[in-house]
Every structure is written in C-alpha cells, then in structure tokens.
UniProtKB/TrEMBL annotation:
SUPFAM superfamilies membership: P-loop containing nucleoside triphosphate hydrolases
SMART domains on file: AAA (SM00382)
Xref: Gene3D superfamilies: P-loop containing nucleotide triphosphate hydrolases
ABC transporter domain boundaries: 2-246
Keyword check for ATP-binding: yes
Protein name (database record): Fe-S cluster assembly ATP-binding protein
UniProt entry keywords in alphabetical sequence: ATP-binding, Nucleotide-binding
Record has Disulfide bond as a keyword: no
Chain coiled-coil ranges: none
UniProt record similarity statement: Belongs to the ABC transporter superfamily. Ycf16 family.
Length: 250
C-alpha cells in the first residue's frame, strides 16, 4: 500500500528526515516510536503532503502511484488520512457540516455524487454511537472549546466517517486519560480490515496495549534505526531509548 524510499525532508532549510525506508502492506498496523525531535511527526506530515515541510529527496509511493508532487487534498481523496497531534479550532463550522463537506468533496473527486442526506445521517449516528459521542457534540463548532480528549475523539470520528485506506495517527494518545484512550483505541480497532492500514506515531507503549501493531520501528535523528514486533515497544518502555542510541553509534 505504501512504499517510502530514501526519504529526506527539511523545514526552513533544517534537515529532519535523513533517509527513511518503509513499507506498509494492506491490513498492517505499524507503530513508529522514538525520542523527541527524532522526526516522527515530520514523517507523518510529509506523507500527508503538509506544505510547510520540504521533501528534498526520495519517493513516496501509494498504491503504485508516486504522490510526492500531489497536493494534500489529492492525497486525501486517494485515501490517506492524517489525525493531527494538535487539531485546529474552526469557529462557525459545526462538526456535522465539516464532515458532510469533507465526505462529499471526497466522493466528488472520485466521480461520485453527494451522499444522500438520509444515508449521511445514518452513518453519522452509527459512528458517533460507536465512539460514545453525544449528539450535542456534533452541532458544536469544530474543536472550539473542546478538551484534549474531545479533540482526539473527534479526529477518530472523522476517520470513521471518511473510511480511509491509510490512517496516520500522530500522537493521538497524548493528553488522554485511560478511558478516552480505550475509546479511541476501540474506534481504531473497529475500523481495521485486510484492505486498510494504520501508521501510529507514539511516544508511549501504553497505546500499543490497545492497538496491537504488527511492526514497531524506532526513529532516531531522522532515520529508522531498528524494527521489530510488538515486544520491541515493551522493551523501549522498560529501557528507554539510550540503548538504541548507543547501539546505533556502535
């Protein structure tokens, strides 16, 4: 589904990614962990096409198509979803109107007509109930006055509604208490299938207790320096990252 080859990226002429190679197949869950400043969030932003980051070298191939020159909305219409670490507030635009506009833009870009209103309402009701979202929440302005947990739950609600092929969750667990974390994880797990993939960016192993990864990758200084199974995340939780840095230096 996703193949990244020798990816280099910078922001304001500072090199952040220094040669990333990564492959994600359909149906797989990959987790990327690493210390602060290692480039994890930059990687997620580059895949999604955020314009403040510059891809200076390498390839990003999504479903056999090179997407490096595509705008963020083109990538989204192809099925890439990014859940932000710090979701922005959009006063005056309700959660329902935002998601209706996003879904219909996606459908129109793929040659489909707008989703019928009754079908849209049914889907909104189904996904909001799945994530324990109060109906009143859906009429509020997008993320305005939301708690950290509400913002993250809303991101997963958007993901559930848009039903992307590749979901990138950038530190979705940050700032969540254990109940909110379980709700978010249940939402992600309910959407997993053999045709869809997930890339989790996280500092902590605790999220991986609820969303079990097939592969764990460790980033240090803009490179993936170690990969393994779910047990690697437990080892990092117990030992930290210094042993990885030492191993890399050797």
């Amino acid at each position: 589904m996703l193949k990244i080859k020798n990816l280099h990226a910078s922001i304001e002429d500072k090199e952040i990614l220094k040669g990333i190679d990564l492959e994600i197949n359909a149906g797989e869950v990959h987790a990327i962990m690493g210390p602060n400043g290692s480039g994890k969030s930059t990687l997620s932003s580059i895949i999604a096409g955020r314009e403040e980051f510059d891809q200076t070298q390498g390839e990003i191939i999504f479903e056999d198509t090179e997407i490096s020159e595509m705008d963020p909305d083109e990538r989204a219409h192809r099925g890439i979803f990014l859940s932000f670490q710090y979701p922005v507030e959009i006063p005056g635009v309700s959660v329902t109107n935002f998601i209706r506009t996003a879904i219909n833009a996606h459908r129109n870009a793929n040659g489909q007509e707008n989703m019928p209103a009754n079908e849209m309402l049914k889907k909104i009701r189904e996904k909001s109930e799945m994530l324990g979202i109060d109906r009143k929440f859906l009429s509020r302005s997008l993320n305005e006055g939301f708690s950290g947990g509400e913002k993250k739950r809303n991101e997963i609600f958007q993901m559930a509604m848009l039903d992307p092929k590749l979901s990138i969750l950038d530190e979705t667990d940050s700032g969540l208490d254990i109940d909110a974390l379980k709700t978010v994880a249940d939402g992600v797990n309910s959407l997993k299938s053999k045709d869809k993939s997930v890339l989790l960016i996280t500092h902590y192993q605790r999220l991986l207790n609820y969303i079990v990864p097939d592969f764990v990758h460790v980033m240090v200084d803009g490179k993936i320096v170690k990969s393994g199974g779910k047990d690697l995340a437990k080892e990092l939780d117990e030992r930290g990252y210094e042993w990885i840095k030492t191993e890399k230096a050797v």
